[in-house]
Amino acid sequence: MEYPKSQKYNTPELMAKIMGPNPFKLQEEMLQNHKIPAGSIVCDLGSGQGLTSVMLAKDYGFKVYAADLWSEPHANCRFFYEMGLTPEQITPVKTDAANLPFEKEFFDAVVSTDSYNYWGRDPEYLDAKLLPFVKSGGYLYVCVPGMKKDCHDNLPKELLLSWTPEQLAYLRDINYWEEILNHSRDAEVISIFEMKGNNDELWADWLDQENEVAVNDRKTMGAGGGKYLNFIAFVLRKK
Q: Which residues form a coiled coil (predicted)?
């Protein structure tokens, strides 16, 4: 798969800020043929250090709120300025995804890249905690790391080289996510699918980094654990 938008961000400085498999490429595939109008107010939920937020503002023309619990707004503000963005284009917000501080029906859309699985596995989350902040007819574009087939009853030894069973509980298969999403009364499931990007390529950009988390993940991926893993995307529309 080609990633024309992502290529411009393929610099050592930006790659050093990623927190998992390449978020630019994941987001670009997820947003292929998206239906969010340019100029929309968009929440980048679980935005990390703001990489995906920059892409949403610069390449898609959205007014972005970069919402994350573990990143500091002042640091993200400095980064956004260095990337040529203004406060009118992008705003960092330190917040828990389960306790969002926005006005009801504030967002035209929500985008979440490679993080929703940390909080979205609660079947009540969508209706109770997220959709109230999205306008009727607004879209949610989400992608998560997943498993090709659920194997929690017999976890492969390759996966346990890097992660504990508790950490692997965040990785689920597409059937699991279909059940979670179909539980929602307030969202229409437009699509849910296994992403087509090359897993080895997406992981390689991360495994090349020298931080301790990436180094630890090399154990599983180097032992062939990637054959059990995939990325899952879903598109929802608020009723």
A: none
Number of CB atoms found within 10 A of residue 198's CB: 11
- Give the containing element (helix H, strand E) for 202: helix 199-207
Report domain extents, the chain: 6-153+172-200+229-238
Alpha-carbon distance of 45 to 222, in angstroms, equals 30
**What is the spatial distance between Cα 20 and Cα 39, in angstroms, rounded to a whole number?**
28
Half-sphere exposure of 129 (CA within 13 A, CB side): 16
CA 134, distance to chain mean position in Å, is 17
> How many Cα atoms are found within 13 Å in the side-chain-facing hemisphere of 222?
10
| Cα separation, 126 vs 212, whole angstroms | 33
Query: Rounded distance, CA 2 to CA 21, Å?
Result: 16
Going by C-alpha positions, the residue among 163, 167, 169, 166 that lies closest to residue 150 is: 169
Report the CATH fold assignment for 6-153+172-200+229-238.
Rossmann fold (3.40.50)
Q: pLDDT (tens digit, 9 = 90+) per residue, 91-106?
A: 999 999 999 999 999 9
Share of the chain above pLDDT 70, in %: 100
Helix (H, G, I), strand (E, B) or coil at 132: helix
Pairwise CA distance, residues 223 & 184, whole Å: 38
Q: How far is CA 192 from CA 15, 30, 195, in A?
A: 28, 11, 9
From residue 77, give the alpha-carbon distance in Å to each of 19, 107, 178, 180. Answer: 18, 21, 36, 34
How confident is the model over 40-73, as pLDDT tens digits?
999 999 999 999 999 999 999 999 999 999 999 9
Query: Are the beta carbons of 35 and 62 closer than 8 angstroms?
Result: no
